[in-house]
Each structure stands twice: as C-alpha cells, then as structure tokens.
Amino acid sequence: MNRGTKKFTFIWVMIIIVVAAFTFINLPYYVTTPGEAKELDDVINVDGGSEDKGEFMLTTVRVGQANLIQYVWAQFNEYHELIPEELIKREGETDEQYHQRQLDVMANSQTSATIVAYQAADKGIEITNNGVLVTGVIDGMPADGKLEIGDLITRVDDKNIKTTEELLDKLGTYSKTETVNIAFDREGNKKEVEVGFSSFPEPYNTEKGKVGVGITGPVTSTSIETDPTIDIKTDQIGGPSAGLMFSLEIYNQLTKEDWTKGYEIAGTGTINEEGEVGPIGGIKQKIVAADSSGAEIFLAPVAHSNYDDAMEAAEDIKTEMKIVPVETFQDAIDYLKQLKAE
User: Fold this and answer.
1) pTM tops 0.85
2) Burial of 262 (0-12, 13-18, 19+ CB in 10 A)
3) Which tens digits make up the pLDDT trace of 92-124?
4) Residue 191 annotated as catalytic
C-alpha cells in the first residue's frame, strides 16, 4: 500500500469514526419530537357500540435517547425538545423498568377513562380496588432490595390497603425510628417484609422532616367489570396522557348520539376517576402531530399552562385547528354538545 492509499484509508477511517460517534454515542438527554394522531375507534371496541361519522384521536410524541446529531438538530428546531435523562427515568431505573412503568400508568389511565365514561353514560360497571402497585423504589432507602416494581401492596401492619390514599395516609403516621410490616403480592406469591423509614434524598423535594420507606409513584390497582364489555388495544403505547380522549371515545360508543359531530377531533390530557383533566408534557409537539394528521379540533388541558402553550404552537404553525380548553370531562362534553354537526 503506497503513501497516498494509506492517507486515503486513514481519512475514511476517521470519517467513519466521527459519523459513528455522532450516531451511536448516546448523551444523558432524551429528545421528544411530534408523533401522530391515532384514530381511537381502531383502539377501543365497546360491544354493540354505536358508529360515528368523525373521529376521536389520541396524540403522541416520539421519545428516544439523544445522540450528538439529534442534540445539535434540536438546537435549531423548536419542536424537537431535549429533556435531561433524570427527568425521564428515575434514578437507577433501567430502560425495561421505565417502559413497564409507562405501560402500568397507561393501564391505570384506561381504567379511569372507562369508569368516567360508563358512569356518565349510566352503564353497568363494577369497580374493585385491589391494593397499591409499586412503580418505583428509591435507591438507598429502606424499601430498596425489599420491594420491587410490580409488587402489589395489600396490607401495612394491621391495616388492609386498597388505594394509594390509604397507603400514604398509613405510612404518614410513622416516625424515622419505627419499622412497618408490609404485605404484598409478587407474581402471584404472597410475601411480607419489615421496612424502616428514612428521609428522602434531596432531589425529591419533599417537605422538611418528611420520612418514608422509599416508594415512588404508587398507583391504585383497580379492576373493573363492565356491561357492555369493552376491549382496548394500545399496541404498547405508554403513559397517561390519552385518558381524556379514551373517555370520550368510550362514551361515544356507549351512547346513541355521535359526539364527534362528523369532525376529526384530537386532544390530550390525563383523567382521574372524578373526570378531572390533568396536564401533560410535549403539548406543542402534539399540536404539530394533530395538525399533520388533519385534525380540525384539539382539546387541550388548562392546567400547567398546557392550553397557553398549545395556542402558542398553533399560532406559530398557522394551523386552522380550533384549540379548545378543558378542565373536566364534562367541559369536553359541553363543548361537543353545542357543536354544529358537519
């Protein structure tokens, strides 16, 4: 190999190394970009549900760990947002644990949406609270190594636990010097452990003097039986932000009136069993996704400036979509009620 060939080879090797560095080396950031608006009658099927002329659609954002190219590109694109890794994943959480946590939260969101819709439509639903699902354990705190993600807490000392509120109220009665016996189910096996209490690490911003066992994001595990039956297929979509749109699609199928009024209606927002609509992240990207998918109306939560951010994005991309603020499920129904059919 002559000197010219060696130099040419060296240059190409360096180019490959640089390209690989920019492409395959992940940074401690995640990048979110506009996703899609997905028609919900492809996802939700109520037995004997009514037909509609329009569509209710959930909106998504794409989330992935950022490489150097994505990091640089995000500096010049308003709708590519960089988020520090610690704000996405909990400390010590693996990718698999994060993904499972998002699926668990989605399942809980589906349950809340179903409860809201069936009760609003006055249809048959039986609700059973089974305990509290562990969705995170803080490294170094007393529960670390004793409780795991997916454990279902059913009793604390002599008190049976059915809901998150009951668990937090009970644990809040203990001091740093005490211990507690926690009974739980793990993959079908009943277990019990003794756990102490300690102060929370500084990043968790808890009130001064507050102690705990080290469980984060506990979620009430609720099972429901409905009449008519319902089937929801989310294709591994995670997170709670589709709650409002789930409730509207279910309600639409349960009732005779076509609440879409013939429009393509996208939106976002969490929902609890009381029908309150909560804020979500990435709403600007969801406005872009909904507009790209042909939505005519977008339902946006009011809380945490979600609606203001949605309006800002809508004006920026010059969409003709109507942006509608909602605080509750009933707000959405009231808006749809006065909407003239296409």
Assistant:
1) no
2) middle
3) 777 777 777 788 788 889 999 999 999 999 999
4) no
